[in-house]
């Protein structure tokens, strides 16, 4: 017998940021997955996922770029629109692409407004103290903001690759200071990526806003994964990823069986043909 949890049949008809805060206060972990298109977004809504992140990881997961630094604002508008038009209940969050906010608060607000117009309900941007003016400007413009600390993929070049952040005391203290600075600037939640579990637990304790972990241990208030990693489609098997399905192999098998059926004339049969 399957022990898979069933999607919620009660609870809010629409997830808002206040529900994430409520979940933190009640000690109830919440869920976020990336989504970039109509079908994945609808499947995750049906599964009861609380938050859909139109991540700039669309660049590496879908568009074939080697880094999220290549994902453009136009990419983000296109995929945000696809997800936002496809679901009702999950909160839809979109990433501000590399280069759209590092240049200052005015640019951050201009690009944030466009993401909200495309259907996002909050925007996410990477960084600590250095982006406090951008966060303040976005919040003042009425745009909810989610921060992103730890390994920040848009800084992959200056961070010298995908590395756990905050292992040393000074680095951990800096992360905690950055989290508090983001909270004071008005963020509604903070993603913690590739951070030691104990450091993420400490940050989760000291900030009042929810934390959302990816490679940050079990004590964050919510968890997020790139969906193709979660479902075993990308083939990425980093230490922090658990694959909950094996879609890559299943998809390949389906394509091989289709190919065999077509080349042997077993498909299409009379039942697939019109009189
Ligand atoms: O773009 C993305 O998918 C992200 C997650 C890794 C949090 O930012």
UniProtKB/TrEMBL annotation:
Its cofactor is Mg(2+). It comes from the Bacteria. CDD domains: KPHMT-like (cd06557). The active site is at residue 193. Pathway: Cofactor biosynthesis; (R)-pantothenate biosynthesis; (R)-pantoate from 3-methyl-2-oxobutanoate: step 1/2. PANTHER family: 3-METHYL-2-OXOBUTANOATE HYDROXYMETHYLTRANSFERASE (PTHR20881). This is 3-methyl-2-oxobutanoate hydroxymethyltransferase. It comes from Brachybacterium rhamnosum.
